[in-house]
Design brief:
Zn_M74/Hedgehog-like; Jelly Rolls; carboxypeptidase activity; about 650 residues; D-alanyl-D-alanine carboxypeptidase-like protein
């Protein structure tokens, strides 16, 4: 831990001076994708400090300063967290020099969203995924390690009767005293704590920022300031480790007897002046006795198992949750259906080893706010049959195992085939959808299991579908695909089969389409080679694989998967669509007059959607066809090889992980 330079003189800070304009006070912080970890919850917490006297605290008196030991314990309710340290030297990250070099866009109040800040905002700044003090998700940003403190404070004072009308947290700008918010000096030392996401301003209309002079020869510390904040609000802030600007800058007032000619008070401003470790300790201490506290076993990027707790009951951004598949001996991977549900912000789930990882560069399923989304995947398991699920934003995860890849015992080999439509209820004699709580049998000419693409269309309400042996559907809690009214969604499935056939069961009436992609055979076919997922394409980035404008609808383009195998299992993700459409990935020679024969993914604007596909490249090359303009992301999950060592053993679908249940 960094050694803190500690000033024993009781009193306020002299670093951040803030003047909040009317437009800044009402502006909402710029939304962005947040991939940073939250150490602890940012939700509401324990009852507020002391009795609630709502009299404005116009002549405040500072408590004694916290010692390092108090700060590290997390119990700071009776002291002031004030350590004079540069945030970049105490674990909060080193921001780019403000306004220096290309990529800066001054928006009148901040540089937020500038290209030059892309890495800074991606790695350090997070956005609220739940409502905070009545403010909507996606409107308030802080540093990833300070977010629990600020959101906990704001939620608590709102719950106890103080009306937070607006708030601004992260704001990449300089202190006004340095020559201007736009940082004309270009010196990072002039940055406000807002630039680190370590400060918040709110309700400045009723808490004006101004200098006060002494009256009738008295000290300025006896001049009442204008504020609507009662003492209990400030005490609550201090319980969360936050310093109040109402005490004053440039030494300010420790009490009404402190001798000052003038004092500059900043009552809408609160900031954190400790280390990330102290922030975590304070959040943990405040959460410890709250009855809403829920804990999860998580795995850090270093591979260490850590219990992490929050008050929302939803695993948070960048948490990795281990999944025990109870795999049989000899299993090297699992074939699963991965579902994300109860999200409040867009994001994705990734499948990873539970060992150390350097980054989270792939995705297996994407979801939007409030969506439940599912995708099939193949994931390696360790010697204990485990893998980890990483989330980019707060969301629940559900895992249903449908098979294991193993090098011993009974195994099936994959025989790819040109897509063949087995079932389309829109084209049956009655043209009727599958009814509520009913199943449709999938016609096949033998009892071999299939890998298929399952699509639901014109759904009559929210529900889910199961695809399995007819004897296994609607018997255990698993799902292959989730849907809402009027949507079209697709997911790859392992369609197990026997003499009684295979079926698709639906919870709510919907049309069902099943396209066979290949069979699973006992004698012929391809084996599996499974490694950690690898990103082969991301058209949002300029890379060796692709560098250009967003791929156009109505066209196909080649992609080098970097494989030397007859087939590969990939996750195909579509994002940034300009219009509704569908996408297909497969052999280039299967295109008919440049048009795809079928589809793997259906998409709409404003949402990212993923599906697994099995493709047969030629010299590593496949084609991707888009119906409408969109960006394309492809992650290679496995190769299907001539060596029949590792094969697939289907099992009755088994729910092995559900973060909603603990």
């Amino acid at each position: 831990m960094t050694t803190l330079r500690f000033d024993d003189e009781a009193g306020p800070l002299n670093r951040t001076m803030t003047i909040t304009s009317r437009l800044l006070r009402t502006a909402l912080a710029t939304s962005m994708l947040a991939t940073s970890a939250l150490a602890l919850s940012a939700a509401t917490t324990t009852p507020t400090v002391g009795a609630l006297d709502d009299t404005p605290w116009t002549l405040p008196v500072t408590p004694p300063r916290c010692s390092v030991a108090q700060a590290e314990s997390g119990d700071v309710a009776d002291c002031l967290m004030v350590f004079y340290d540069d945030p970049s030297e105490t674990g909060w990250g080193l921001p780019p020099a403000p306004g220096v070099g290309p990529g800066w866009n001054w928006q009148g109040y901040w540089y937020n969203g500038s290209v030059a800040l892309t890495d800074w905002e991606r790695t350090q700044i997070v956005t609220n995924t739940e409502s905070v003090a009545g403010m909507s998700p996606g409107t308030l940003q802080f540093h990833k390690y300070s977010q629990p403190l600020f959101e906990g404070f704001l939620n608590e004072i709102e719950e106890n009767g103080y009306d937070v009308q607006y708030a601004v947290g992260y704001s990449f700008r300089c202190m006004n005293s340095s020559g201007g918010w736009s940082c004309p000096s270009g010196d990072p030392d002039d940055l406000s704590n807002h630039a680190w996401g370590l400060a918040v301003d709110f309700n400045s209309a009723t808490n004006p920022i101004r200098s006060y002079a002494g009256i009738d020869g008295k000290t300025a510390c006896q001049t009442p300031m204008e504020t609507d904040m009662p003492r209990w609000v400030i005490q609550t802030a201090e319980k969360w480790g936050l310093y109040w600007g109402g005490y004053g800058w440039n030494s300010g007032c420790q009490s009404t007897t402190t001798q000052r000619t003038t004092v500059f008070r900043d009552p809408p401003h609160f900031e954190f002046r400790g280390t990330p470790e102290m922030a975590a300790a304070i959040a943990a201490h405040n959460m410890e006795n709250d009855p809403r506290r829920q804990c999860f076993e998580t795995v850090t990027d270093d591979g260490a198992t850590v219990e992490q707790c929050n008050l929302t009951g939803v695993p948070e951004a960048e948490w990795r949750l281990p999944v025990d598949t109870d795999a049989p001996a000899g299993a090297t991977a699992a074939m699963i259906n991965l579902t994300a549900t109860r999200s409040s912000a867009a994001g994705h789930l990734s499948l990873e080893t539970c060992g150390p990882v350097d980054d989270h560069g792939t995705s297996a399923v994407n979801f939007g706010p409030g969506e439940t989304a599912a995708a099939m995947a193949v994931v390696p398991v360790d010697a204990d049959g485990r893998f980890c699920v990483y989330r980019s934003t707060a969301v629940h995860s559900v895992v249903d195992v449908v098979g294991y890849l193993t090098d011993s015992g009974e195994r099936l080999w994959f025989e790819p085939s040109a897509p063949e439509r087995l079932l389309d209820t829109r084209l049956t004699e009655t043209r009727a959808p599958v009814a509520d709580q009913a199943a449709a049998q999938v016609p096949t000419d033998d009892t071999a299991a299939r890998i298929a693409n399952l699509t639901v269309a014109a759904s009559q309400g929210p529900g889910h579908a199961q695809a399995a042996k007819c004897a296994d559907v609607n018997t255990t809690p698993f799902s292959n695909i989730n849907y809402v009214e009027g949507t079209t969604r697709a997911n790859m499935v392992l369609l197990d089969n026997d003499v009684d056939g295979s079926c698709v069961w639906v919870h709510t009436a919907t049309h069902v389409i099943v396209d066979e992609l290949g069979r699973l055979l006992t004698q012929d076919g391809l084996g599996w080679q499974v490694d950690a997922a690898r990103r082969a394409l991301d058209t949002r980035l300029c890379t060796e694989a692709f560098c250009g404008d967003k791929p156009s609808g109505g066209d196909a383009f080649e992609v080098d998967l970097g494989v030397d195998a007859p087939a590969a299992a990939v996750t195909l993700t579509i994002t940034g669509a300009t219009a509704p459409g569908h996408a297909w990935a497969g052999p280039c020679d299967e295109l008919v007059d440049g048009v795809a024969p079928t589809s793997n993914v259906n998409y709409v604007p404003g949402s990212a959607v993923a599906n697994m596909a099995v493709v047969a490249p030629s010299d590593g090359i496949v084609c991707v066809y888009l119906h409408a303009d969109a960006h394309v992301v492809i992650d290679v999950q496995a190769e299907l090889v001539d060596d029949r060592t590792v094969g697939l053993r289907p099992v009755t679908p088994d729910r092995v992980h559900d973060s909603r249940e603990r």
